[in-house]
Amino acid sequence: MVIAHLTYAQWERKSKLGFSGGYESNVFLNPPSLVVDGITMGRDQLLESGTFQRVYLNNTFVLDTLNHRLKIKANVGASIYQTEIKANRHTYDIGVSYRKKVGRKKYFEIAPEYNRRQRDGVNETDAVIRTPFSFRQVLIPFHFDYYLGKRAWLKTQVGYLFKDYDRVEGEDLYYRSPFVTAAISKKWLGSEATKKLTVTANGQWRKYTDIEAITSNAEDPEFVSEERNWNYIRLNTEFEVIDSENKYRLLFGLYHLRRVDVDGPNGYTQFSPRIQFKYKLKKLTLESEFKYSLRNYLELSPGAENETLLKYNYIRAGLGGSYDLKRNMYVFLKGRIVNRESNSPNLSAIGFRDYFTGFAEVGMVVKF
After folding, report:
1. Can you give the pLDDT of all 368 residues of the chain as single tens digits?
2. How many CA atoms lie within 13 A of 322 on its CB side?
């Protein structure tokens, strides 16, 4: 990687330019079939797929001294679809972080950031809240990291997240969410490999405000406002193995998620095992990942007269590789699939249904 020094010797700039092309299947996560007015629509009518080109530019500026570190990031990206123009996506991210050493191996950091996503369409896969694909969000986290000794760390975080989704004039959807995270990690050094165990607990309290129009009168529309309180509890365990020559990295993860719907029936539990493997040989790097998730709703049924509870099975898998052309340039090829199976019998609804999506992508990245 080539690092360019800016006005002051302590400043470092790291930039990355990427461009690629590929094909994405079922961009808007529609089910494989849908019954409308007694007529069954199939995959050919529902699945919106097509080729795309993607380009992004990431910039990071770092000022690092003995006890302080200031980092500024500014990223921009775009994905342009040839056949599904409404799937075009634009992203903008900007953030600042300040890290200060407050004691022997004790660090404090504040890292606010702003994210913007622009894309047409609404995600209706879960039907409870119709969330547009476009949104803006502000994240304000505070970190405190403490070295416990014997290669063990305690890392804590408290913060606030505000997320506002794009809607038509007069309507609105947003949530406010304080959160807290604590993670303990322990590392073991060996002659053949380094092993690391990390246990993370997280709590997040989301308060949604959902304002929708209930009349179609353009001159004098009538709106209704609804609030939802969804609390998220996560407990994650990861075990990582890296060989002494840094040729491979193997990660096993177990992730537990609980959503508590304070005022309604939309709470669930989800359990997800995951395995990830990365192998590097000279200029070639290969990566693969597999994750399975089982989500069980605690009160919500898949149909009005169905006594069974709603259940999802997710399979997420990815495969990719990259090859270094130069020290600061590489080409890559990657693909990913997501398959959701649902026990919902309602073929007239888009929400709570099965779906399959995936993409394949090839491109190049230049660092400067």
Report:
1. 333 434 444 789 999 999 999 999 999 888 988 888 788 888 888 788 999 999 999 999 999 988 899 999 999 999 999 888 889 999 999 999 999 999 989 999 999 999 999 998 888 887 688 888 999 999 999 999 999 999 999 999 999 999 999 987 678 899 999 999 999 999 999 989 999 999 999 999 999 998 877 776 666 677 888 899 999 999 999 999 999 888 999 999 999 999 999 989 999 999 999 999 999 998 999 999 999 999 999 999 877 667 789 999 999 999 999 999 999 999 999 999 999 999 988 888 888 999 999 999 999 999 99
2. 20
Contact 316, 290 (CB under 8 A): yes
Are the C-beta atoms of residues 110 and 97 closer than 8 Å to each other? Answer: yes
Tell me how far apart the alpha carbons of residues 249 and 90 are, in angstroms, rounded to a whole number. Answer: 32
Residues near 124 by beta carbon (within 8 Å), at least 6 away in sequence: 130, 350, 351
Strand partners, 133: none
- Cα first-last separation, the chain: 7
Nearest CA-CA partner of 94 in 79, 68, 113, 108: 113
Question: What residue type is 8 in one-letter code?
Answer: Y
- Dihedral sign, Cα of residue 34, residue 38, residue 41, residue 46: negative
Would you say 367 and 328 are in contact if contact means Cβ atoms under 8 Å apart?
yes
State pTM to two decimals: 0.90
Q: Structure tokens of 180? A: 């807290």
Query: What distance in Å separates the CA atoms of residue 134 and residue 117, rounded to the nearest whole number?
Result: 5
